[in-house]
Design a protein that fits this description.
The protein has about 80 residues and is of the alpha+beta class. It contains two helices and four strands, in the order αββββα.
Length: about 80
């Protein structure tokens, strides 16, 4: 998946906006995997990985709920690493 959405919004910003609108606070954003992408730490315990290349993936407590929110908003969620 591209680094940006069709409207030009960076993918990680669109994901943060989607989660925030659903009442999930993203309390930290940090790089992961030696520069592979960003990890978004959520108030629910879910961790959303937004790689520079490839599909977004989710893990941790409430990961399935976060993934469902993102899929409903049109994001592609992959199986992870």
């Amino acid at each position: 998946m591209s680094e940006t959405r069709d409207d030009g919004t960076p993918r990680h910003e669109a994901i943060v906006a989607t989660l925030t609108a659903a009442g999930v606070r993203v309390w930290r954003q940090s790089p992961y995997g030696m520069g592979k992408g960003l990890m978004l730490w959520c108030s629910t315990g879910a961790m959303v990985m937004v790689p520079h290349e490839g599909d977004t993936w989710v893990q941790g407590p409430e990961g399935d709920a976060a993934a469902a929110l993102l899929v409903a908003a049109g994001f592609t969620i992959g199986p992870g690493e």
